[in-house]
Amino acid sequence: MHQEIHLPTKLLYSVKEFIILAGIGRTKAYEEINSGRLKTVFCGKRRLVPATSLQEWISKLPSASE
After folding, report:
1. Is the pLDDT at 2 greater than 70, yes or no?
2. Distance between CA atoms of 18 and 28, rounded to whole angstroms?
3. pLDDT of the residue at 63
4. Distance, first Cα to last Cα, the chain
């Protein structure tokens, strides 16, 4: 059973903010993006992580008991 994660009301996060929120490194963040496990969008040249993608990514992480 997955718990609902409540994030601040921000709709889009920079990759740097995502790294801080997720507690992972830059290399791992881009691995998740390049694999398609974390969906991102572009605004001009800037890559952003939608809050909905962040929540979806969290919900798909394996639990500690797996």
Report:
1. no
2. 11
3. 86
4. 12
Query: What's the token pair of residue 59?
Result: 């919900």
The b/e string for 8-41 (b: 16+ C-beta within 10 A; e otherwise) is: eeeebbebeebbebbeeeeeebeebbeeeebebe
Burial class (CB in 10 A: 0-12, 13-18, 19+), 50: middle
Look up residue 48 and give its amino acid.
L
Residue 5 predicted with pLDDT over 90: no
User: What is the spatial distance between Cα 4 and Cα 10, in angstroms, rounded to a whole number?
Assistant: 16
| Residue 53 CB neighbours (<10 A) | 19
Provide the pairing of β-strand 12-14 with 41-43.
unpaired
pLDDT in tens, 12-44: 999 999 999 999 999 999 999 999 999 999 999
